[in-house]
Amino acid sequence: MISITDKPIVTISEDLLKVDRHAKALSDFILRSDTPLTIGLQGEWGSGKTSLMYLLREKLQSSDVATAWLNTWEYSLFRGAHETTPAVLQGLLVKLKDACGDQWTLNDEAKEKWRSVVRFAGALGNQLLANKAGIDAKAAIDEVKGGSSQTITDIAELKAAITDIIDRLIQDPKNDFKRVVFFVDDLDRINPADAVEVLEALKNVFDIPHCIFLLAIDYDVVVKGLEGKFGPKTEANEREFRSFFDKIIQLPFSMPTGTYDIEHFLASKLKDLGISQQAGREELFAKVVKYTVGYNPRSLKRYINSFSLLNSIRKLDEAAEEQGEET
Question: Which of 260-296 are b and which e, b meaning 16 or more Cβ less than 10 Å from the residue's Cβ?
Fold first, then answer.
């Protein structure tokens, strides 16, 4: 192997940067906190937000927590600004049902309510596709009336229906679930304005008991998404930007990049590539990398790949020189 891929880690055995203690602290907080709650994992691209979420999910899987994972960028592809939010709402419900299907008994009434909720969210997306001005709830109602005996009539009823569905999951004797954790990843990969709209929808529609949201997003993305509403960020209006973010996020958590074990990470990755370091110089090498490349895992992986390529070129040059000396 001469390169490493830019994939998030999914299990604690892959944790070379030593973030397990943060994952443990957050998972304990999730298990003991009151609901509803929204946690924001903040950090720039490549800082390890997705990896931390995977570690959290691994720790929560053995507890009384139902989990559902959603990659928001998948629901924003080929969609306009107002279409992403209904798609995300629909996706969250579908992902939850898929994740808990084997441990969840839905009677006919509950199944019908579930279908009604999912159809309504999907119909909102269809109406937004035709009506760029915003959500046309009445048109969405008309669209689902033909196929459901239980018709959702407004956004408030949508929230009530979702609340009832979550309650049924929690009360179902077939499982031990006490709360639901939604992992909402890659919000900072979609259009900033869309990300803000999704945040508002999650706050208003899913602000219900038993639910905890983990959102992977960078505060700077929220700022960009709000510029259409507040204008460019200045000292005069900075409080408005921060107030919006604080209204959505009850627990902000900044990725602890400054505490990452860069020395251990570099040594392990270089060993995988067959590159040996001079004995006793590992700490010095790690310091040089910290001050030049930084702590961002994605940047570190790119650096290691570049280092590996240059090392291959060096070996070829040395081989050519040796061959020239022999001739």
Answer: bebbebbbebbeebeeeeeeeeeeebbeebbeebebb
By C-alpha distance, which of 257, 258, 282, 280 is closest to 268?
282
pLDDT tops 60 at residue 152:
no
- In the DSSP assignment, the letter for residue 305 is H
Collapsing DSSP to helix, strand or coil, 315 comes out as helix
- What are 11-54's pLDDT values in tens digits? 999 999 999 999 999 999 999 999 999 999 999 999 999 999 99
Q: How far apart are CA 150 and CA 112, in angstroms?
A: 7
Q: What is the Cα 237 distance to its own chain's centre?
A: 28
Containing domain of residue 110, as a range? 20-255
Under 8 Å CB-to-CB from 321, ≥6 apart: which residues?
A: none
Rounded Cα distance, 175 and 104, in Å? 7
Amino acid at 317: D
150 and 185 fall within a common domain = yes
Cα–Cα distance for residue pair 104/150, rounded to 1 Å = 21
Residue 166 belongs to a domain: yes
C-alpha R_g of the chain? 24
Asked if residue 285 and residue 190 are part of one domain, the reply reads no
Give the DSSP per-residue string, 266-291: HHHHHHHTT-PPPTT-HHHHHHHHHH
pLDDT at residue 103, rounded to an integer: 64
Q: Note the pLDDT of residue 226.
A: 92
C-alpha closest to that of 2 among 311, 249, 257, 238: 311
pTM of the complete model: 0.85
Tens of pLDDT, residue by residue over 196-235, are 988 888 888 878 999 999 999 988 888 999 998 899 999 8
- The predicted pLDDT at position 104 comes to 65
- Cβ(319)–Cβ(299) below 8 Å: no
Cβ burial of 43 (10 Å; 0-12, 13-18, 19+) is buried
